[in-house]
Amino acid sequence: MPLHAHNALDLPQEHLLHRLYAVQQQFLHISPQSMQQVAAEFSLPLSQIEAVVAFYAFFSTRPRGQFDILFSNCTSCGYLQDGHNLQLMLAQQLHVTPGTTRNDGIVSIDETSCIGMCDHGASMLVNGRPLTRLNTDRIAAIGQKITANTPLTNWPTEWFEVHESIYHRSLLLSERFICASALKKALGTSAEEILATIIQSGLCGRGGAGFNTGKKWQFCRNAPGHAHYVVCNADEGEPGTFKDRLLLHQHADALFEGMTLCAFAIGAEKGFVYLRGEYRYLLSHLLSVLEQRRCKGLLGKHILGNAQFHFDIEIVVGAGAYICGEESALIESLEGKPGIPRIRPPFPVTHGYRGQPTVVNNVETFIAAAQVMAHGSEWFKAVGTEHSTGSKMLSISGNCRFPGIYEYPFGTRIQKILDDCGAYDVQAIQIGGPAGKLIGAANLHRTISFEDLPSGGSFLIFGQQQDLLTVHRNFARFFAHESCGFCTPCRVGTQLLKNSLDRIANGHGTAHDVSELKRLSGLIQHHSHCGLGHTAANHVLDSLQDFPQTFEPHLKQQLTTQFDLDHALACARQIRQRHDTTHSG
């Protein structure tokens, strides 16, 4: 069967990821013949097409089912709920083995990393569409629909509804954004004055690193290049994070205005939103908002009548790769390549998309920038702390009564946040997702801020009944799966970390294995190529330090006291050091 014909003049308008997605939709997989034709269409080496297809989780070289089901395996929206394995339950009902496609080609069942529905309970993607609040009854009903070969369009619409629960509002969610207010104000000034306003506000990137936004824009503006670019990172793949889902749905206008403001400040004519594949269901809405802005003269040529200002935005949808949340990997993906992080320096502000100066900020940052321009830097600085101005949006899920979206001024205490979301029997909180910080009861007085506990935006709450070792195994499995494989410390180290935790959980670990966990975590942390590896073992190191009881009950030769455990760890370190010294000589 031939692929759909494409006019060569149209090719620049279609991204490689979108073309491959269309092939996958048409044939339910991407065959060698399809790859050859796509390579010819885009005038690219076949090896590059093969590498891209192999890299992204949502592409498959083997046929998927007409009903292609991917269960989330996240700790909050995963398929293990209340003692039930929902994935296995559906697989048994439909007579298909998880990880395969049924012989008749009707259905395939597999799992995927967190799909950003952590406040909606067990969730899955059906042909890319999210289906939430799964339970045994709904699983049975889904099985019946598939058995009857009922098209998705005839499934109950409420199954696919994604409701947004906002429980606490601060600066951004309380203030209604007036379309064009930031741009009209900006076009009445100069690029230098815009940069000064953003810098004076103290706005820092909301992705977790906390670099000053105005200075980043300034560095990019001053960087030499024949073109400058604006990129929005909407690839929030950190398990437990879903705040961008709300912002993209309800605040897209402010997002696009923030990107346009940035374009005016740095001299860019082209922008991209890199939308995670799990949020593809939002694409039509986002495209509609973009078209509305073009009709209002807020995008395209001569924006708001300014003869010198031309800027437009394209949306590129990812295909399932957590690593593309790293800004240089995202840029590689935008360029139609596997999302492997670049060696830095140089940084994207000087050598980004196609080697040109590029600003990469996340959704929340661009929205905050638009509000800063509309209301002024002092308005923004009046909230937060001296070193962390403004507010922070949080995705809260896990063992709490009210999972959902919360926005707080920087400087808010962890205990206050737990009280608000109804988390009363807390054992631990994973702040900032698996790559963030694991804290316990001794740290609830600390605050959300860049100077204390920075966060990309998630709180995963674990109650006293939660087995933290199970959590660590889930996180370790996630990082082992999502490693891009570029460097040995991360590619091999994350797999070894997963295997070590599995061995301890299965009752085959000893005190020596606990010691090795720490050593292995340090190697991954200090010798990996990019941020994924640098942070992949954070949760284990935090638990070894603050939650040693996580591992102790599972050890094969049970140590009766904490003193015995500490002594065994010390001895193991000394033996390893002597071994390393001997062999290095």
Count of helical regions: 22
Taken from the alpha-carbon principal axes, the silhouette is globular
- Termini separation (Å)? 63 Å
- Coarse structural class: alpha/beta
User: Helical residue percent?
Assistant: 40-55%
Strand proportion, as a percent range, falls in: 5-15%
Strand count, sense and barrel status of the largest sheet are: 6 strands, mixed
Over all CA atoms, what is the radius of gyration?
24 Å
Strand ordering within the main sheet:
8-14-13-17-15-16
Instruction: Tell me the CATH architecture of the largest domain.
Output: 3-Layer(aba) Sandwich
- CATH hierarchy class name of the largest domain: Alpha Beta
Q: What count of domains describes the coordinates?
A: 5
Number of strands: 17
| Unreliable parts | 1-12, 581-585
CATH topology of the largest domain: Rossmann fold
Mean pLDDT over the residues: 93
CATH superfamily of the largest domain: NADH-ubiquinone oxidoreductase 51kDa subunit
